[in-house]
Amino acid sequence: MYKNSQFEEKDADKVLAFMKAHSFITLIGYDGEFPVATQIPVHVYQDENGIRLVGHIMKKTDHHLAYAKNENVMALFTGAHSYVSASVYENPAVASTWNYSSVQCKGKIKLMNEEETRMVIKHLTDSFEDPKTSPAAFHKMDDA
């Protein structure tokens, strides 16, 4: 990411709010040879230990195997973006640019056991499906 201090958000509460509002992330890891990435929805939590992202990835995929091999990951949150034409500049004879909002988080991934994974899937499903009326509610899923 191109970093310029004049555009960097210093207010941690605003950064956290952005992360919560744009919680369909790109999770990036490294398998020892190539980068790997997957897009997943996450829940964003903050407590005395810092910020924690909780989501679900399928087992035995290339990214799962990479994350199991190397716990260092980056989560990329992206928001609105737009081309900015140099034609609106005082001196338009320069390169145009792109305006965007994003947050990058670096940390360590923790792969969960089967019961923890079930609880994450339940929480994610219940966030997007009405547990009482949806035919896709968590409690209606096959155990497998």
Any key phrases for this structure?
alpha+beta, 5-stranded antiparallel sheet, 144 residues, 2 domains, 5 strands
Number of spatially distinct domains: 2
> Percent range for helical residues?
10-25%
* Extended strand count: 5
Task: Indicate the radius of gyration in whole angstroms.
Answer: 19 Å
Q: How widely separated are the two ends?
A: 40 Å
CATH topology-level fold name of the largest domain:
Pnp Oxidase, Chain A
Q: In percent terms, what proportion of residues is strand? A: 35-45%
What does this 3D model show about the protein?
The chain has 3 helices and 5 strands. The chain is α+β, with helices and mostly antiparallel strands and 144 residues long. Strands 3-2-1-4-5 form a 5-stranded antiparallel beta sheet.
Helix/strand layout:
Blueprint: H1 12-21, E1 24-30, E2 35-47, E3 50-55, H2 62-69, E4 72-84, E5 97-108, H3 114-128
Antiparallel strand pairs: 1-2, 1-4, 2-3, 4-5
Give a summary of the structure in a few sentences:
By secondary structure, the protein is an alpha+beta fold.
